[in-house]
Specification:
Elements (H helix, E strand, L loop, with lengths): L1 E5 L11 E2 L25 E4 L3 E4 L7 E3 L20 E3 L4 E6 L7 E5 L3 E5 L24 H20 L3 E3 L4 H13 L6 E6 L10 E5 L13 E5 L1 H8 L33 H9 L3
Parallel strand pairs: 2-3, 10-11, 11-12, 12-13
Antiparallel strand pairs: 1-9, 3-4, 4-8, 5-6, 6-7, 7-8
Helix pairs in contact: 1-2, 1-4
The structure holds zinc ion.
The site of zinc ion has 7 residues, from loops.
């Protein structure tokens, strides 16, 4: 495990943490004015991209509020849009507490202001994770939001990987989620690339292979050919179409418990096209 410390003074700013894959929904908002968002990161974990280290709010230590730097552009809470709102005791701005409406709760440490110290734990093998389960926690009310965002990111990566080709998807769960969007986004072209799911226990031959990212390292499942890495959570759903976990079919949350009998597997994931557009705009 590693502890993040202040680059300026060496003070420890977190409890010991284990690395996990960067969540697709990190930094993405849900809805408009959703005020009761959950914490992004599980306690005791962190994820990092090139700019920030995401941790759970309860895992931060030794910081204080930079009250004169609180947001002027956030809505119901803090977001750190304007400037870091957390300082180390030495006076160095180190990150932001995020608790604005529609935002996943968390603390974002500035990658340039902190550094990891300690020895990272060995990465677990692929076999350490459950791949033959569509949904690990059927009472998880935020599952739809996370997977819809992950599918939006995946759509953008498929489109980018397709290049100038169109994409053909055989009938099945992958087609249910992506085909209509791909048909809309990709104009007819002379070249057609096939798309299929591959990963633990699942071999496939196609031009583009949707593979899971390792839940800890984020590395894609190794395949020969062009891999399109997607979130492990979305992959499990696509790879286990015969399972009937109990989740609201409409994409809503548990107030739909009024339904009787309870809806089972939703027919399709409500892929987040806003996320797709945002993701594609970041790439050439
Ligand atoms: Zn410091």
């Amino acid at each position: 495990m590693v502890v993040f410390e202040c680059v300026a003074c060496g003070a420890e700013l977190t409890v010991p943490l284990s690395r996990v894959d960067w969540p697709d929904h990190a930094g993405r908002t849900v809805g408009n004015g959703v005020t009761e968002m959950p914490v992004l990161m599980e306690a005791g974990t962190y994820a990092t991209n090139s700019q920030v280290v995401e941790i759970a709010p309860g895992d931060v230590r030794g910081v204080s509020w930079a009250t004169d730097l609180f947001d002027t552009t956030s809505c119901c809470g803090l977001a750190g849009y304007d400037a870091p709102n957390l300082w180390c005791a030495c006076g160095q701005p180190v990150g932001s507490r995020v608790d604005d409406c529609s935002a996943w709760q968390g603390v974002q440490l500035d990658d340039a202001a902190v550094r990891p110290v300690g020895e990272a734990e060995p990465v677990a093998g692929w076999e350490a994770f459950e791949w033959d389960t569509a949904l690990l926690d059927g009472a998880d009310v935020w599952w739809h939001d996370r997977v819809a965002i992950a599918a939006g990111v995946a759509l953008a990566r498929i489109v980018i990987a397709a290049g100038d080709a169109t994409v053909a998807v055989p009938d099945g769960p992958v087609a249910e989620v992506f085909r209509s969007h791909l048909d809309e986004l990709l104009p007819p072209a002379p070249e057609v690339k096939t798309l299929a799911l591959a990963g633990p226990g699942l071999r496939a031959e196609a031009d583009l292979l949707l593979v899971p990212r390792h839940p800890e390292s984020g590395e894609p499942w190794p395949v020969e050919g062009t891999a399109v890495p997607i979130s492990a959570e979305l992959w499990r759903w696509l790879a286990n179409p015969d399972q009937q976990p109990c989740v609201p079919a409409t994409g809503g949350r548990w107030p739909f418990l009024d339904d009787d009998p309870l809806p089972r597997r939703p027919e399709r994931i409500a892929l987040d096209r806003w996320v797709s557009r945002s993701e594609m705009s970041r790439r050439p």
